[in-house]
Structure prediction request, 326 residues.
Amino acid sequence: MSATQTVPTPSANPLGYQTFAIGRFQFERDEYFAHIHYPGTQHIMPVDAFLRALMRDVGWGFFYGTVNFDNVFGTVNHYGTVEMFIGLFNDAYRLTNRHFVETFQSADLRKVFEAMLDDWTNEGFDPYAAPGETGLAYGAKHGNNTAALKRQRMVAERMVGLPGDLGYRTDAGGYPINRQFTDVPQDAPEVHAEPGFEGQVHAFNMFAYVSRSDVTWNPSVVSCVFDSQFCATTEEHALPIMHGNDRVEWFIQATDEIIWDVDDGKTGRPRAKVTMKAGDVAAMPADIRHKGYSPKRSMLIVWENNDAGLPAMYGKGELKPYPVEF
Ligand code: PHB
Ligand code: FE
Prediction:
């Protein structure tokens, strides 16, 4: 753990943005870019890409394994502590010993990331929205969008659609069908419950439900059985991170098409291109990283194994990085 302090500097820069520091990292933003200073030099990223990645890292509690903001900068989740790095999974940085890593308590880094995300997000820019559905991130500081950053997933109190649940709202007061999902049938299944079971048996149209999602690249748990987590998500444009998994993860392409770049998780060397069309199923190995591209908004099911023992088993080679031997 780093002994250094979490220090948002009190004064803003001339553009109105706070500078943030933790450990030996310092983060600054200008009209177009995020600047990440670290011992050595600085790394630079377009600020919209930086904020979209930061939103996921904050929203997902550092996620499974590695969240690469780009080829250079990112975080590794050790579930309690988190490593923040420059060039750790980049061959060129590693081979020339230019990488830099620091470990933090997850709660400390989360605090800095949350404050930075809030301060650097201007009015009108929503980092969870598809680029075609949001305003721009650029310019001097103007307003904020805290409401969008803090949005909570709707939590089903019980199976969606049953009396008492708040989640399933296809009525006029609920979420509208997304502009790119107007082709998704909205019919509901017929349910004929035995007398006495009317309030306990239900079925609903999952496609209709997901067609109303107002965010992109944000898996939400839709069923959870022990460590099996089924997560539906709607994808448009590009996954804002390159995810380096620490376990096998399954994808089920429910509609439309996503093209995946799959690279080696440690070096970043390209390994595969995977085009997934509606109905395709893929297992993403535990030793890769990936970034998806969805030219039209699509529906994806991400199936995760939440077993906390898995990263160590893959790390020690007790499990093969892929789930099936053909
Ligand atoms: C992934 O990294 O596997 C991932 C993340 C977010 C998504 C889909 C896939 O929306
Ligand atoms: Fe992933």
About this structure: The mean pLDDT is 92.
